[in-house]
């Protein structure tokens, strides 16, 4: 049966193992000469750096040393330069083929396309053979057992496809991880969102033990610890930002972020996600992701980084305010904090357990003892009331009677 033309794309990721980073130093002068460097520079590098490398091993009651003739020293001044000098040529190995090689450090990815499935497999095998031959010529080795392949075909199925690398058959997978981002065949990045949320929740549970509602660290320290979770979730956000347009992925992100938001606000689980985010001053995670992507795209279009950050932040806060106005929850909190920017821009007071109770549902238990703290003084009010509105009226009236201090 003849195959119909298609626009399927195949991506292969040959990962280089530790043994593949070992290269004989005799290749370095050859690379210098191939790039038309001055011969004097070649001799100086060879004599001053390559000729005196010595590995010293210290063991209790004994010591030994050996001269190095291969490898790239981690942390050395010339390490990155020498590695690029040795490895940069692999990007030219597939020139003229229907493919594109992408390298980052010792990770190499090949993106191959074809009009038909058969043509795509042929192109992929040619690229793998060319890369494998280049590696062997430069004393490097690929690890076929660690090489992964994925068919970026969307919802279409492509059964029976396999690729060959040095006699090893590589079967396509549903998802692969490249540079910390999980790529699925449909390019929805749903599996990536699920994985980063699971990891964030584990980290949040560990940090939550250090941040009890009462007697824990102040808000500033809580925010610093929460940034650890946020930074992990926002890694490469501009790449997978389209995932937040799907409802279940957006809700998954907000659910994972909620754990740290409650800890910043010193709130119980009964506090709504909308109210906890506003009280803690934490932008919803889906808006954070969109902000990162918008900032990245603006910089790509030529806008200055500082201006791009400012514009994307203002737009994200505007969307947050619209969401807050349309929220059907936390009516009392919204009455006290109608404008988020004014709340975030205040120059006094930190959020604590008592403040959160007052701002959310102070009178939920029928009668409470509310403590309102500030940097200057702490006033304790004891009132037996039924609603937060009555308590607020009592505080205002009592303050007017006492007058300013």
TrEMBL record:
<feature type="domain" description="Reverse transcriptase">
    <location>
        <begin position="1"/>
        <end position="183"/>
    </location>
</feature>
<dbReference type="InterPro" id="IPR043502">
    <property type="entry name" value="DNA/RNA_pol_sf"/>
</dbReference>
<protein>
    <recommendedName>
        <fullName>Reverse transcriptase domain-containing protein</fullName>
    </recommendedName>
</protein>
<dbReference type="GO" id="GO:0071897">
    <property type="term" value="P:DNA biosynthetic process"/>
</dbReference>
<dbReference type="InterPro" id="IPR000477">
    <property type="entry name" value="RT_dom"/>
</dbReference>
<dbReference type="Pfam" id="PF00078">
    <property type="entry name" value="RVT_1"/>
</dbReference>
